[in-house]
Amino acid sequence: MNKIAIIGIGNVSRQDDGLGWAFVEKLNIPRTNIDTYYKYLLSIEDAELISHYDTVFFIDASKNHFNEGISFEVVRPDLSFQPFSHYLNPSLLVYLCESLFHHYPHTYLLQIEGYQWELKEELSAQAHQNLHTALNFFQNYLENSISSAA
Amino acid sequence: MGKKITIDPVTRVEGHGKVTIHLDDNGQVNDAFFHIVEFRGFEKFIQGHPFWEAPVLVQRLCGICPVSHHLAAAKAIDQIVGVDPDDLPPAASKLRKLLHYGQVLQSHALHFFYLASPDLLYGLDSDYRTRNVMQVAIDNQELAKRGILIRKFGQEVIKAVAGKKIHGITAVPGGVHKTLTNEERKSFFSGENIPSIRTIIQWSQETLDFIKDYHSKNHQWLDSFATFPSGHLGLVNKNGGMDLYHGKLRAIDADGTETLLVPDIEYADHFIEEVKKWSFLKFPYIKYLGRENGWNRVGPLARINVCNHITTPLAEKERKDFVAYTNGVTNNMTMHTHWARLIEMLHCAEKVKYLLEDPEIMDSHLRTEGEKRNEGIGIIEAPRGTLIHHYLVDEKGMITKCNLIVSTTHNNEAMNRATKWVAQNVLDGNHEITEPMLNQVEVAIRAYDPCLSCATHAIGTMPLHVQLLHADGHLINEIVRNE
């Protein structure tokens, strides 16, 4: 069976930066082949983590504007310059997974537009809306993917 | 008019620091400072909380070394419930030690493979775009992979004992709240989902062989870079051996003469902290020796210097080789800290194996209690050095006072001296300040593996910001490199 990881990234103490974790928390997909993770940020050892999965979804807040409040894209391996070792982007993580552990999971990035980033544990109203949009999108996507596979 | 060069932030260390170098008109270094620009306030806002919350709260000081804070606070609150370290049930003591050695193992692996190895593998003058852990992962896949897996092993030990890898909980007043399962214990020997402990020991040994080989080919710069005399401080057991969990405080001067050997709980009688207006990080020193002579390095190099043996055989052999290099004389060579750190990594791997093999660790007697006290002191050797937690409580058990002296605070003077050494030996007289020159300042600081978040008991993105200032503060030029 296709092993799937859903990784929420962010900091719930920074308002809409908590969108990634909120997504994972509210996700309702009771399947035994799906593992969920909460990460403050991605680090180099996560290259080993994702090497155990066939499909990986990263869920993260974004300061960018998206027409419907969310963006969904395929993540391709990319060796972009990373000056600080305590922060990695998904593309580089996939690159490392492939080169160090000889495994290339199907990887996707779901970004949810956020608006407020102050020291506070609460999503903004607009971010809440985008969160629901993201959840609906993802659940439909996953159901369709599973149906297609069947 | 003089010039001031600022490196802000310092990279490949935990937390954020700033370096300021003051030059005169001839490009000669007047002075150099390592500023800590974060203020945390833990010692204040923990007041008013019940003492049993301390091991949970203080972990939030840091996401890199939370276990050290958890265990130091645990040792302190044990005393508040009337339990000294020797009174702890053996299983509880061994589980805490397992947690401790697991986290030192993974912390040392993190530092060597992710933070220090780019400096060693690519040299001080290499392009900053390749002098990072990503390039190490590309050029030295086996080294990078081992670094990831040794760190993962240590984190799995932490998770097994404390419930999760970051901010887990195991300690309760007078003991621990759970033991290992047989499955957890076996998993560290099987090699199924993670390398076995025997593999970790082997890799630790091979990494040591790598650093010794590297040293043999690069000893000139490694022996001399940022080298200066200093005192050294660490915990030792009753026989003078290295003990990362509990012992007496021992300090020696730069020539090896003992300057302090006292029970750890008497630290306040012997240490004082100086405050400077240009940094939130204090300067601890041994009172009777005075500010100039009483400061000490802590951490791997200091611990090797202050002990007379290591209790595990492979690490002890390596310690002897290390000590033989200086013919038994105290080692003040800053870059040898990396070598010493790897000896400790091997020691921790050996200790983890012994603890896992010890049947007593599975005993169900996990907690005890004594007669309540209103004060508790917990001192432990964190990965970066001696860590002190000290709490006073009222009759209801609420914390009324807290004093934390973390490892990086002890190393504050040493990091400032290292900064100044580089400034005087590398930057002095140069009218063009290059990026490799600035990197050497960071290399000197990185050897101490500082955790600046801990040390100022922060958030957001911080671009690499270099400012060139007149001595009177006017901006001459600036460069910003965004994350």
How big is the Rg of chain A? 15 Å
The arrangement of helices and strands of chain A along the chain is EHEHEEHEH
How much strand content do the residues of chain A show? 15-25%
Please give the oligomerization state of what you see: heterodimer
Principal-axes shape call of chain A? globular
- Which term fits the overall shape of chain B? globular
Radius of gyration of chain B: 22 Å
- Report the span from N to C terminus of chain A: 11 Å
Helix content class of chain B: 40-55%
Coarse structural class of chain A = alpha/beta
**End-to-end Cα distance of chain B:** 33 Å
Q: Report the biggest beta sheet of chain A as strand number plus sense, adding barrel if it closes.
A: 5 strands, mixed
Strand order of the largest sheet of chain A: 2-1-3-5-4
Largest sheet of chain B: 5 strands, antiparallel
How many β-strand runs of chain B? 16
List unreliable stretches of 5+ residues of chain B: 456-465
Q: Would you tell me the overall average pLDDT of chain B?
A: 87
What does this 3D model show about the protein?
The complex is a heterodimer of chains A (150) and B (483). In chain A, strands 2-1-3-5-4 form a 5-stranded mixed beta sheet, covered by helices on one side. Chain A is 33% helix and 22% strand. By secondary structure, chain A is α/β, with parallel strands linked by helices. In chain A, β1 (4-9), α1 (19-26) and β2 form a beta-alpha-beta unit. The longest helix of chain A has 25 residues, at 125-149. Chain A has helices spanning 19-26, 46-50, 90-101, 125-149; strands at 4-9, 34-39, 55-62, 70-74, 106-113. Chain B has 483 residues and is α+β, with helices and mostly antiparallel strands. Chain B is built from 17 helices and 16 strands. In chain B, a hairpin with a 5-residue loop joins β7 and β8 (258-263). The interface between A and B is medium-sized, with 21 and 25 residues.
Task: Set out the fold topology.
The complex is a heterodimer of chains A (150) and B (483).
Chain A: E1 4-9, H1 19-26, E2 34-39, H2 46-50, E3 55-62, E4 70-74, H3 90-101, E5 106-113, H4 125-149
Parallel strand pairs in A: 1-2, 1-3, 3-5
Antiparallel strand pairs in A: 4-5
Chain B: E1 3-8, E2 17-23, E3 29-36, H1 42-45, H2 54-57, H3 66-80, H4 90-122, H5 133-139, H6 141-162, E4 171-172, E5 175-176, H7 182-190, H8 197-224, E6 231-236, E7 248-252, E8 258-263, H9 267-270, E9 271-274, E10 283-286, H10 290-294, E11 296-297, H11 300-306, H12 313-325, H13 336-357, E12 375-382, E13 385-393, E14 399-405, H14 407-410, H15 412-427, H16 435-446, H17 452-455, E15 464-470, E16 475-481
Parallel strand pairs in B: 6-11
Antiparallel strand pairs in B: 1-2, 1-15, 2-3, 4-5, 6-7, 7-8, 9-10, 12-13, 13-14, 15-16
Helix pairs in contact in B: 4-6, 4-13, 5-6, 6-8, 8-13, 11-13, 12-13, 15-16
